[in-house]
Amino acid sequence: MKDLYYVAQEISKQKNLKGNLLKYATGMASMYTGLAYMKLSMNYYTVYDMRQENATVNPVFEELLATTNGVIDKLLSGQAEDVTEVETVRNRLIETMEVVTQYVDCLRIYEYVLNRVEHRFSGQVADEEYYGMYLTNDLMHYILADKDNVVINSKISEVVGQLPMRLSRNKFFEYLREAFTLYHGAQKGTIDDFAYALCTTAMLQEVKGFETLFPEVYDSYRTLANADYAELTEEEYTRLKNVLTIATEKMLDCADLFVLLTQVVNDLYTIILTEKQTLSDIGEVTVAKQIITGVRQAFDGKTLLSDEVLGKFEYFEGKQERILMILSKSDFAVETALENMPEELEEEGLQDCYAALADVMKLQSGSDFVSLIKDPEKLNIPDNSYADETCENIIAQLKESFTDMPQIVRRAVMSAVLSQLPVFFNNTDEICEYINLSLEQCNDAAEKMAVIEVMKMIMRGG
Q1: Tell me, what's the pLDDT at 21?
Q2: Is the model's pTM score more than 0.85?
């Protein structure tokens, strides 16, 4: 569809709309259908492969996979015409991933805690000379080695999240307030999303299903949350470390599977929305259906996946990249038409088609869990007081949660929250001063050893 970009430009100039609106819709739908079928075949196979390797699969995943397989059966038989079923699965996946994400956030807090106490029992002693004289210099070189500000800020957040936490609560809350002032003038949805991310990072709220969806991991979380880290014995440390390792592995495996299944569902959703509007005889669709059929039969144990089926992936080489390039250049006309030409779309009977294309653009954007529901309220720009009040609400929750929280866990939470904030340094001197003060104010030998280890790992690139 080499003319698609030209047609998009013509639409933006409102030229020959009667012919161009239909031509563009058909071309975009064809492109997205072909792309989605190729991705579906690859993602579906990857889900199958990972599930075969995973010894214990979550019952929720199995239920959602079974429903997804049913939609694929309908797709292959030409009966997948309604998005209701796939929409329900997608919403369940989004809810489930909120639980998975919260567990991952919580387990990272206790990973930080156990990392800080590990060297009470290891017998290793920190290199005080390196810690006191050279570590700051190495970290500054690491942070400033790149010229890209986005990369630099990412490195600063990573380092801040692992430095010894010795800020007073008041100073910590001051940083929070400063961060929210940066959201003055932002859309309500942007502020709410930032607040939600901070609350889950700080373990301030339990999302729906937190206690029930993964009962074994919930038990592990409670074990870690109720441990006495001040009086920890080596035996208890080892037990907690094993609990953390097993729970983390389970959640990361679950995260991988649920993300992949969501990608499969997004591809199915895309196909159902676009296939009726496509041009005929799309070669990659025929090949993708053959692969999907083979994988579907393998899921039921009817056949093994043959090399012949897997060899068909070679047909897609370079095709995804070509389609994505065309789409990225041409997709601007969807919103242009929806916003500026509603009467013309209605006259041509294309309003639903363009609305579907707008949803498809979200489904194929790379943000797997993006909402398809338009909430005009989220686009509103509230008074600055909204961001400030949101911040004060979070601070109130933090103060309450800190009341009975062990000091070492509280410090882990504060570090995790700081790493999520927009960078709050104005220049390199302030970065250097913050690192120096954090290191100097730590007198715990075990934590010094842990900090040296984790910082060297960060500077090596993982």
Answers
A1: 94
A2: yes
* Structure confidence at residue 307 (pLDDT): 82
How many CB atoms lie under 10 A from the CB of residue 353?
A: 24
C-beta of residue 176 within 8 angstroms of C-beta of residue 417? yes
Residue type, 370: V
Q: How far is residue 366 CA from its own chain's centroid? A: 10
Q: Is 346 exposed, middle or buried (0-12, 13-18, 19+ CB in 10 A)?
A: exposed
pLDDT of residue 281: 65
Q: Which residues contact 210 (CB under 8 A, 6 or more apart)?
A: 99, 102, 103, 218
Question: Which pLDDT value is given to residue 56?
Answer: 63
Contact in structure between 135 and 452 (CB atoms under 8 Å): yes
Alpha-carbon distance of 181 to 176, in angstroms, equals 9
DSSP calls for 72-133:
HHHHHTT----SHHHHHHHHHHHHHHHHHHHHHHHHHHHHHHHHHHGGGSS-----HHIIII
Which amino acid does the sequence have at 65?
Answer: L
Distance CA 448, CA 120 (A): 11
Token pair listed for 201: 């990072």
Which residues are CB-contacts of 190 (< 8 A; sequence separation ≥ 6)? Answer: 183
Report d(CA 422, CA 378) in Å as an integer: 21
346-349, long-range: CB < 8 A, 24+ apart:
348/17, 348/18, 348/21, 348/22
- For 326, the token pair is 């065309």
> What is the DSSP secondary-structure string of 214-252?
SHHHHHHHHHHHT--STT--HHHHHHHHHHHHHHHHHHH
User: Half-sphere exposure of residue 326, counting CA atoms within 13 Å on the CB side?
Assistant: 21
- Name 58's Cβ contacts closer than 8 Å, sequence gap at least 6: 213, 214, 254, 257
Going from the first residue of the chain to its last (462 residues), give the mean pLDDT of each consecutive group of 10, the final group possibly shorter. Answer: 82 89 93 95 93 78 93 90 91 94 95 94 88 93 91 92 92 95 94 94 90 94 95 95 95 91 97 85 86 92 79 89 92 93 92 94 93 86 96 97 94 94 89 93 93 93 66
